[in-house]
Design brief:
By secondary structure, the protein is an alpha+beta fold. It folds into two domains: 227 residues, Aminohydrolase, N-terminal nucleophile (Ntn) domain (Glutamine Phosphoribosylpyrophosphate, subunit 1, domain 1, 4-Layer Sandwich), CATH 3.60.20.10; 177 residues, Rossmann fold (3-Layer(aba) Sandwich). The chain is built from 17 helices and 22 strands. The strands form seven sheets. A six-stranded antiparallel beta sheet has the order 4-5-6-7-11-12. It has a four-stranded parallel beta sheet with strand order 16-19-20-21, sandwiched between helices. Helix 9 crosses helix 10. The radius of gyration is 22 Å and the shape is elongated.
Length: 456
């Protein structure tokens, strides 16, 4: 396959919504691994000069959104590690729940860490694992890893995809001319002209090399626990995950909200962009006109994903501009995908009030989020989650809405269209598919003592 770094760049562009803190690409042509990473958006990190320094026939890329380890250059991915079996580059989507234990164990064996991420723990565990082939080493490592991990791994002569046995985070496979592509979402395949073949199965290892593609079962799949937040917010609406087009699920959420929480109003607004589809669907079902009364500056990062609360608060003010002439004196139904910390929503409602809205009826496309996520969504600690601390009437008062309706759990599951037992609903129910320590710290590995030097 020609110019793999450029293809990877455009695929990362399509996945920019999954992380905006840093970006990176690693390539190989069979005689070494080249890597380029940097802080910021894909377009900030890469230019023609950077891509020209990434030759080869195999590439992996990563957009980072920190769920373990702080947002800094040292924690960018792909991560390159080297052991007796050779050198690999690893990119990881997800979050381990036993990273500290494995980090300590590997440190005592003499493995050195240059980052504070669980992704480097995974990479070092793979090179530390016994086996004659990378597949055997990865399989051995998978038996030790606990948590969510979708991985793409680059060796000197192969591309490997790995998905955890619960299938918490998405990973799909596509075909491009004489090559193969792995990506978090199918929208990335579309952007580079790749045919979607299938999703990588939970517990599966996919190995792609010059001989073609083969599949191996790394570990026995557990109960499926695909993150429901992919459908609510995280994934792009033009992606297909779990066999379901995201656009259709968000339409269904808006329709169901109109059925569960009808109200007399003059217009419906979806907070752009993640609730626009649900807003249009709510309007269609309710018969209330949909209006774009709140405009978004699309060049400001997603406020939920930015890691620093101070930046997050600034981001809300930079992000939205209400249309006063359209909204003044009107009764509004406002749809949003979720209320997590309760940082954004009161400010959006205050903006709309200032623009002259007479009534504001808030409708939310998810049930109340009462429990933190430990599997790859940086939601907050439990005490930061507004629904963990306040009742729904208290939240309504706090955000300044005239009424507040959250989509029911039953309504959410029906909207997604997959059996309840195949989804991770832990942030809504507290029922985690994997046992977790309820106050895990995303900066935990930064607090560990200095590692012992690597054996010479």
């Amino acid at each position: 396959m020609e110019d793999v770094s450029r293809l990877t760049f455009f695929a990362l562009f399509a996945l920019q919504h999954r992380g905006q803190e840093s970006s990176g690409i690693a390539t190989t042509g069979g005689n070494g691994i080249w890597v380029h990473t940097g802080m910021g958006l894909v377009s900030h990190v890469f230019d023609e000069a950077a891509l020209s320094q990434l030759p080869g026939t195999i590439a992996i890329g990563h957009n980072r959104y920190s769920t373990m380890g702080s947002s800094q250059l040292a924690n960018t991915q792909p991560i390159v590690v080297e052991g007796a079996a050779g050198k690999i580059a690893v990119a990881h989507n997800g979050n381990l729940v036993n990273a500290e234990v494995l980090h300590q164990e590997l440190s005592e064996q003499g493995y050195r860490f240059s980052t504070t991420t669980d992704s480097e723990v995974i990479a070092n565990l793979i090179i530390a694992s016994p086996g004659r082939t990378w597949t055997e080493r990865i399989r051995h490592a998978m038996h030790r890893l606990q948590g969510a991990y979708s991985l793409v791994i680059l060796t000197n002569n192969s591309l490997i995809g790995v998905r955890d046995p619960f299938g918490v985070r998405p990973l799909c496979l596509g075909k491009l001319d004489n090559g193969w592509v792995l990506a978090s979402e199918s929208c990335a395949l579309d952007h580079i002209g790749t045919s979607f073949l299938r999703e990588v199965e939970p517990g599966e290892i996919v190995i792609i090399d010059s001989k073609g593609i083969k599949s191996s079962q790394g570990v026995k799949p557990e109960r499926n626990a695909l993150c429901v937040f992919e459908y609510i917010y995280f994934a792009r609406p033009d992606s297909t995950i779990g066999g379901r087009l995201l656009y259709r699920t968000r339409e269904a959420m808006g329709r169901r909200l109109a059925q569960e929480y009808p109200v007399e109003a003059d217009m419906v607004i979806g907070v752009p962009d993640s609730a626009t589809i649900a807003g249009i669907s709510y309007a269609r079902e309710s018969g209330i006109p949909f209006t774009e009364g709140l405009l978004k500056n699309r060049y400001v990062g997603r406020t939920f994903i930015e890691p620093d609360q101070r930046i997050r608060e600034l981001g809300v003010r930079l992000k939205f501009n209400p249309l006063r002439e359209i909204l003044s004196g009107k009764r509004l139904v406002i749809l949003d995908d979720s209320i997590v910390r309760g940082t954004t929503t009161p400010r959006v409602i205050a903006l709309l009030r200032k623009a002259g809205a007479r009534e504001i009826h808030m409708r939310v496309c998810s049930p109340p989020i009462r429990y933190p996520c430990f599997f790859g969504v940086d939601m907050a600690t439990r005490w930061e989650l507004i629904a963990a601390r306040k009742s729904i009437p208290e939240i309504r008062e706090f955000i300044g809405a005239d009424s507040l309706g959250y989509l029911s759990l039953e309504g959410l599951i029906e909207s997604v269209g997959l059996p309840k037992g195949t989804l991770c609903l832990a942030c809504l129910t507290g029922d985690y598919p994997i046992p977790v320590q309820l106050e895990m710290d995303k900066l935990a590995l930064e607090a560990l003592p200095e590692e012992v030097p690597s054996p010479q």
